[in-house]
Amino acid sequence: MTDMKIEDYLAQGGKLTNPSNVPARYRAELMRLMATFVDSELAGAAGFADVINAGPGIKERIAAAKIVMEKTDNADKVLKIMGEFGANTEKYANHHPWADRLPRDADIGTNRTEGDMRLAVFNYPLAGWSDAVVMNLLMGLAVGVQMKEFTGISYAPLAEAFREIAPVEARHAELAAEGLERTSADNRQASVDYWWPRVAASFGKDVSTRATQLEAYGLRKASNADLREEWAATATKALEKFGLTAPKG
Amino acid sequence: MARFHKLTVTDIHKTIRDAVVVTLKPDDPAAFDFTQGQYLTFRRDFDGQELRRSYSICAGRDEGILQVGIKRVEDGAFSTWANEDLKTGDTLEAMEPMGSFFIPLEPGANRHYLGFAGGSGITPVLSIIKTTLAAEPASQFTLVYANKAVNTIMFREELEDLKNRYMGRFNVIHILESDAQEIDLFTGLVDEEKCAQLFKHWIDIQHVDTAFICGPEPMMLGIARALRDHGLDDSRIKFELFASAQPGRAPKKAGKAAKAGNKGTEAVITLDGASRTVSMNGQTSILDTALENQMDAPYACKAGVCSTCRCKVLEGEVDMVANHALEDYEVEQGYVLSCQSFAVSDKVTVDFDQ
To answer: A8 to chain B: nearest residue by CA?
Structure first.
């Protein structure tokens, strides 16, 4: 059997299976992708933890606590894989104040804050229970769309971790929908209007400088714009059930 | 973070001319409670340079021993040493078992597993076969085992013994590249076409629950394509790549250069095959210098803990102010965390591609 370049192997859909056989640049892109997920889950869980007590009833508080616990667990699953590449997992979990948020009216577009890789949307504060539920529904559906990409990723141990994570995250979106059904707060549409563009921005810029390379590495398939469109269609339908509408434009 | 532990060699024997099976007794047995299909990463110093190599465990979980198979690869310092100089009583250092080349076992399961192994790729697959057949009394396992010739088949006798012990539940198909066999189908390479033929005549692919593939790149691709064509999606295919070449670790160390003057530093930064020469000062990290110059350098935590921003210093001297992720041997080879590293010499050359 002849030797094959690892780049050619990846371009043909090959899977990598442990840290010793990944090229340096692939390693870096994979680490960045994992850090983005871990930071977003940790920041998401930390932000949501504050909302548990705002739940209107026991059931809601249980659901919120479950979401906080499971998102932290999902972060742990991926952080473990980063650890196999040398990341210091104990320090990593504590190197950043994950509960920190910017002011509600900050406008940072798709930018990250200094020092962590959480998606921009996790830098905005939640404003009470129904606002948290709306955010969780919209973001939960966005994660669902992303998971379809992530479960097919070329680093097999990570693809497997995501296959375990995907149904858990899907359930969080369902819990959000159930929660929304039980809230009748009249500011729900205002929350949708606030979170919609911010969740939409979490799919990244339309023109991504790294897309070609990530695709060649088997770390992504669909474009940011395609994923965002898929989410917008799903989320619009989900909101309709509650008499809510997606903002235009 | 995984740590290294000491293990004593209690037995070492040849399985074929250029492969040994090494039995190990760990000082800390609890740390080596492995799952079938996992591997151990060893480290050893060769002429002042630390080498790390991973080898799969070939023992079954229920056997009560820890055993790895090491096939000698051409010019491979570690594998040659293990095959020629390693002896009973020697001490090795290895990290705890790692890897996810397995699926959870269920004693009551009635599954049909299909394994593909190329050459020394048999090592983790053997561990999986032994463990699975013992733990799931109603499950079956079919192994397609690719080798150059009869005399390069690792664990040939052990596989025969397993066939006898698990009559009717374990089946091996040997495919040999150069030795002719009675059935034409069993000669040649295990590629997509060969798999398609096997699925037509010999393997009931419709009833396969999970497939395991372990071998070199082209073999993995061909088999995976054939399996997907026959309805197995990636969640039912387990991969373990035995790459033909582990990434090279050049022994070249970063050369010491003159101390930086007040003029600032000229930095040559290579990323994605392109090199740029930029000027930097002692107060800006290599990472920030790259980012300020519109280079899309990789990073995540910027706190020295995740190692995403790792690069290699090829020339000049840098000061790494914090390091919670790189290990000593990586630092010796010239790797630094670019988010924590500042230029000391007048000229610094770094590479993110190595």
So the answer is: B217
